[in-house]
């Protein structure tokens, strides 16, 4: 969603500068394409992968895996609770959630419109009933983790940026594939389509993407 | 007014009676099983009748009967407020009970905005008569001239001596007197209650859960029923498999049922259970095979296509014809020929349909949210072959009505099931049942042709193609639908010399019924949109154009007021203003809507001004509330929801797709009431029809885009 | 069926019900408190709103088992004398028309004001958009919440 950004060397330098300024671990994600990554790995001041957990850095495999990750994250089951605004989305067409519930500071809604007032610990039976999870919420206002409208490049960079991902390090990111609310996307309640990959396939893609260096696709 | 003291006092009295009468199970839940059901017909302890509406006990406590349904529109206040005025008792000290269905009250059908306008003159007179009898009784007791006595605050006072008697000490004697033939009514200027914004007596009951609605009724041994009805009215039950349903704990019985919608049988399968939940679970577990042969299964697209085709080829049955429309259209320099389309709608009362019935030993008693207890009594009496007095119909509070609950199908269904099961039964309609079964407001298309000459309308021709409610109730099909001109202001017919209004017959198997403001709810959109289009053609200001075509002093004053309150004459460039004025049930409402471009796309409503002329009125706050509510309902019908059909069935089942306006959608609304000495007009409905044309006219003013089809989206218009 | 114990309006109730039964029907049909209303059954309209441990849950989609051992307050228990500031404001403004949705509206408004004693119009919208009123009393709901916010909170008893 950022078609105006040229992906030329000045852009790369700019991103590299940003990366160097970042105190986070996941600086490799600032690369914007496999090509630039291939040419510059050793110039990085930091590495994504701690020395104690060596993995095979492979930008091609990483970007390929991310394509699958992206498909899942942008499916309604994931994106609906990662909206661009402060109101979640709803349905397979990702329309704005009826009755416009607000995110609130903690991501759990506000006043008489808290998520768990309707969303139960488990799915409510029937069509068009609230899906359930004990931990139902949106990302908090401090780390809104917006998926809606993000390009693959933007989303990849955002996911590994601790400033934007809720302070997650690699281990926590890897573990996030098994988060209860993430897994709940695969038991969405009656009448809702599943994400385009199985949870196992998603986990594999997610893990591969991160372990091969969490490269971002070309913008 | 001191809310707390009034509501406390009122609450105790009112709930003590209505709570018992309507639903003791709700008022004293743990004692429901032992409750004796008291009603106005059988309750001796309420005192002595002075007439069918007024009863006073020995302590002077006045009980007033509301013979009409209370569905939010305020009969529970209006009827007692009228009576209290002439009876000279403070409204906040009377108890109020609902009447049963009974012909002694005249018509009880709470529709057509008729409660006040239809009965206020009689109510004033019978209350003044009762007051005069009490005064006479006092004069007799004191052996003083009656002309020396007057009534005040529940007492008769002897002016010269200052002697005072409570109504309670007079009522027994008063009841024996011959009612005087001519009584003097109070002058409007002397009213202390009518015309004042007194608090609603039902408000306290509605803030702590004690108001008894239909669904709150309980009876000893009562069972609950949920019915899987054929989603197409004319379909039949071919067979059903209730194996799974019978396994649901609490389900007691499953039976095929047949009830009547108008005169069309509707078939379904009823699950009888010990709790609402068990009945609903049982219903869900049913597998019913329907026989849907022998009638058309229409889609919305097909319905409107046929309406549009009919409007191109059929001149229709003429309702009104004056001048030479064809000639004037031919000669007109600027001509318009457009089609407007309005949707089917569901009533979607917040309280879904329900009814409780107990059929025993050749009599049946009904409790429910019922708009027309007398009509229900008539219908059940006829269909179940019971004498009228063996059909006892009790009104509860209604959680909305809007016309749907003025119908007979759901009480009749409850009576039929109770008879079959042999127990008191509460039939619970799910929201899905309520949304999809109809009867619906008909969706109607209008073809409007017109011409302007010299800045005035030289020809106006309207044809309407939509389902006729009357045909479902036995009206002849070769006569025009006499509701085609509902909504249209009569003075227009004086200024428009060449005028033609006709009804193009149109039928489908989909059941239809009146919906708040009935035909005016759709006619108003066509008439007042077209008026705006003609004004534009004539290059006239829409308000001026209306003025020039409405030669009526009362309407002119109303337009003055509308222009004044809305700032019509000082509107600025870039602001979209639209207006409309419609008549409905003897009241006229003009509205101005202001819109602006929404930075997020589309259009937003900035303000609505409404001016109601309902003549004589009871409670200005209720009048305002009704107009506010009518505008919100019209907003939903114009911009958010419609009933669509696919394969002969209603598609939208619940509020997730039949979207209701929410608090986030509501613009500021200011309501003004015209003060004059005209007879009372309706209040509950007339505020609705002018809104949608005023809105779309405003959108045209802002964007140049003419909206001719409802509903439309404000976000994308 | 094992019994489920719920504290409703300050009183313990032992309910022998299907644990899957929505709290709404347990409150209405089993406990017999009819002030909580059925409107849609799918958490769209808010007519069934009750307080579960102080939060405005939609009882039509809340299984009765979720309330086991918890505290529920219904409209009947919001105050002893119909005088919670929200109730008093509702009476002063004459908010209800048919009144069917207002048990839920009031329960929602009570939570809104607890969490935000001085709400703006936008806050009110954010808190009240889950409650549908077919009579269209929304402008009065908004006005009454502002009024209640300004009232001294003198509640005879809150059974929470």
From TrEMBL, chain A:
Entries under InterPro entries matching the protein = Multihaem_cyt_sf
The entry's protein name is: Cytochrome c
Automatic annotation (TrEMBL), chain B:
Q: Which domain of life is it from?
A: Bacteria
Residue ranges constituting the Aldehyde oxidase/xanthine dehydrogenase a/b hammerhead domain according to the UniProt record: 208-294
Gene Ontology molecular function terms on file: oxidoreductase activity
Name a Pfam family for this protein. Answer: MoCoBD_1
* PROSITE patterns with a match to the protein in the record: TAT (PS51318)
User: What PANTHER family does UniProt report for this protein, alphabetically?
Assistant: ALDEHYDE DEHYDROGENASE
Cite the NCBIfam families for this sequence: TAT_signal_seq
Task: Please report the name of this protein according to its UniProt entry.
Answer: Xanthine dehydrogenase family protein molybdopterin-binding subunit
Automatic annotation (TrEMBL), chain C:
Keywords of this entry? 2Fe-2S, Iron, Iron-sulfur, Metal-binding, Oxidoreductase
> Domain named 2Fe-2S ferredoxin-type: which ranges?
2-78
Known PROSITE patterns for this protein?
2FE2S_FER_1 (PS00197), 2FE2S_FER_2 (PS51085)
Coiled coil start-end: none
Do the record's keywords include Iron-sulfur? Answer: yes
Q: GO molecular-function annotation terms?
A: 2 iron, 2 sulfur cluster binding; metal ion binding; oxidoreductase activity
Which PANTHER family does this chain map to?
BLR6218 PROTEIN, OXIDOREDUCTASE WITH IRON-SULFUR SUBUNIT
Protein name as it appears in the record: (2Fe-2S)-binding protein
Name the source organism: Spirosoma validum
């Amino acid at each position: 969603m950022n078609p105006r950004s040229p992906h030329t060397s000045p852009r790369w330098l700019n991103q590299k500068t940003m990366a160097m300024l970042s105190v986070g671990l996941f600086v490799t994600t600032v690369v914007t394409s496999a090509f630039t990554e291939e040419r510059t790995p050793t110039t990085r001041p930091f590495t994504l992968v701690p020395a104690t957990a060596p993995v095979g850095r492979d930008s091609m495999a990483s970007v390929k895996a991310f394509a699958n990750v992206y498909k899942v994250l942008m499916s309604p089951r994931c994106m609906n609770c990662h909206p661009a605004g402060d109101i979640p989305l709803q349905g397979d067409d990702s329309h704005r959630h009826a009755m416009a519930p607000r995110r609130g500071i903690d991501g759990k809604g506000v006043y008489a419109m808290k998520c768990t007032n309707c969303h139960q610990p488990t799915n409510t039976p029937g069509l068009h009933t609230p899906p359930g999870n004990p931990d139902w919420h949106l990302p908090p206002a401090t780390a809104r983790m917006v998926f809606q409208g993000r390009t693959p490049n933007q989303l990849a960079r955002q996911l590994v940026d601790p400033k934007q991902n809720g302070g997650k390090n690699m281990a926590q990111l890897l573990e996030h594939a098994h988060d209860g609310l993430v897994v709940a996307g695969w038991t969405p309640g009656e009448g809702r389509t599943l994400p385009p990959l199985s949870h196992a396939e998603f986990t594999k893609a997610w893990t591969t993407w991160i372990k091969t260096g969490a490269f971002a696709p070309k913008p | 007014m001191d809310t707390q003291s009034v509501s406390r006092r009122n609450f105790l009295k009112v709930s003590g009676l209505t709570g018992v009468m309507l639903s003791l199970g709700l008022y004293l839940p743990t004692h429901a099983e032992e409750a004796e059901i008291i009603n106005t017909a059988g309750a001796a302890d309420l005192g002595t009748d002075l007439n069918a509406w007024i009863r006073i006990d020995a302590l002077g406590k006045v009980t007033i009967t509301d013979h009409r349904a209370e569905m939010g529109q305020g009969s529970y206040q209006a009827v007692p407020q009228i009576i209290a005025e002439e009876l000279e008792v403070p409204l906040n000290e009377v108890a109020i009970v609902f009447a049963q269905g009974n012909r002694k009250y005249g018509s009880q059908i709470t529709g057509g905005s008729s409660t006040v306008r239809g009965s206020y003159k009689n109510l004033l007179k019978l209350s003044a008569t009762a007051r005069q009898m009490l005064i006479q009784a006092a004069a007799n007791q004191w052996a003083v001239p009656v002309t020396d006595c007057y009534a005040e605050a529940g007492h008769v006072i002897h002016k010269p001596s200052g002697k005072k008697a409570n109504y309670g000490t007079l009522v027994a004697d008063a009841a024996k007197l011959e009612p005087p033939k001519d009584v003097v009514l109070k002058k409007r200027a002397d009213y202390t209650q009518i015309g004042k914004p007194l608090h609603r007596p039902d408000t306290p009951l509605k803030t702590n859960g004690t108001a008894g609605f239909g669904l709150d009724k309980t009876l000893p041994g009562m069972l609950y029923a949920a019915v899987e009805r054929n989603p197409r009215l004319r379909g039949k039950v071919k067979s059903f498999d209730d194996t799974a349903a019978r396994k649901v704990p609490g389900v007691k019985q499953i039976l095929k049922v047949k009830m009547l919608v108008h005169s069309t049988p509707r078939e379904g399968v009823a699950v009888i259970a010990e709790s609402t939940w068990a009945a609903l679970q049982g219903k869900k577990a049913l597998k019913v095979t329907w026989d849907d042969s022998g009638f058309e299964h229409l889609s919305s697209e097909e319905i409107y296509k046929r309406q549009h085709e009919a409007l191109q080829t059929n001149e229709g049955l003429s309702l009104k014809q004056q001048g030479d429309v064809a000639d004037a259209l031919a000669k007109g320099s600027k001509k318009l020929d457009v089609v407007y389309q309005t949707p089917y709608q569901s009533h979607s009362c917040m309280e879904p349909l329900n009814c409780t019935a107990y059929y025993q030993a050749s009599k049946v008693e009904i409790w429910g949210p019922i708009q027309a207890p007398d009509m229900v009594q008539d219908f059940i009496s006829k269909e179940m072959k019971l004498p009228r007095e063996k059909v006892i119909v009790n009104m509860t509070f209604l959680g909305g009505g809007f016309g749907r609950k003025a119908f007979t199908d759901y009480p009749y269904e409850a009576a039929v099931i109770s008879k079959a099961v042999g127990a008191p039964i509460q039939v619970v309609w799910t929201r899905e049942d309520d949304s999809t079964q109809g009867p619906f407001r008909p969706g109607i298309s209008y073809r409007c042709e017109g011409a302007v000459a010299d800045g005035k309308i030289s020809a106006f021709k309207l044809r309407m193609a939509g389902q006729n409610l009357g045909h479902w109730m036995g009206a002849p099909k070769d006569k025009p639908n006499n509701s085609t001109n509902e909504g249209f202001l009569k003075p227009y017919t004086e200024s428009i010399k060449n005028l033609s209004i006709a009804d193009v017959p149109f039928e489908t198997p989909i059941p239809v019924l009146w919906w708040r403001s009935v035909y005016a709810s759709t006619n108003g959109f066509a008439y007042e949109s077209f008026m705006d289009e003609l004004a534009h053609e004539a290059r006239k200001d829409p308000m001026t154009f209306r003025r020039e075509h409405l030669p009526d002093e009362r309407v002119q004053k109303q337009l003055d007021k509308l222009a004044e309150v809305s700032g019509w004459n000082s509107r600025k460039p870039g602001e979209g203003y639209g207006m409309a004025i419609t008549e409905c049930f003897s009241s006229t409402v003009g509205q101005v809507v202001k819109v602006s471009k929404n930075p997020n796309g589309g259009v937003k409503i900035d303000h609505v001004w409404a001016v109601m002329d309902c003549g004589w009125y009871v409670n200005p706050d209720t009048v305002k509330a009704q107009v506010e509510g009518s505008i919100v309902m019209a907003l939903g019908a114009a911009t958010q929801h419609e009933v669509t059909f696919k394969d002969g069935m209603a598609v939208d089942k619940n509020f997730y797709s039949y979207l209701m306006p929410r608090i986030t959608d509501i613009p500021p609304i200011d309501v003004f009431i015209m003060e004059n000495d005209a007879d009372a007009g309706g209040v509950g409905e007339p505020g609705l029809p002018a809104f949608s044309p005023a809105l779309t006219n405003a959108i045209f003013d802002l964007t140049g885009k003419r909206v001719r089809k409802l509903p439309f989206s404000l976000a994308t218009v | 069926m094992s019994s489920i114990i719920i504290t409703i309006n300050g009183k313990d109730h032992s309910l022998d019900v299907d644990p899957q039964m929505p709290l709404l029907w347990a409150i209405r049909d089993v406990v017999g408190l009819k002030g909580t209303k059925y409107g849609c059954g799918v958490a769209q309209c808010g007519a069934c709103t009750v307080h579960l441990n102080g939060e405005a849950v939609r009882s039509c989609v809340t299984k009765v088992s979720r309330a086991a051992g918890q505290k529920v307050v219904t409209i009947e228990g919001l105050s002893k004398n119909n005088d919670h500031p929200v109730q008093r404001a509702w009476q002063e403004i004459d908010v209800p028309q048919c009144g069917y949705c207002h048990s839920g509206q009031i329960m929602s408004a009570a939570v809104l004001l607890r969490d935000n004693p001085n709400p703006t119009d936008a806050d009110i919208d954010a808190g009240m958009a889950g409650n549908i009123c077919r009579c269209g009393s929304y402008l009065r709901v908004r006005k009454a919440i502002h009024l209640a916010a300004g009232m001294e909170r003198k509640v005879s008893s809150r059974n929470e």
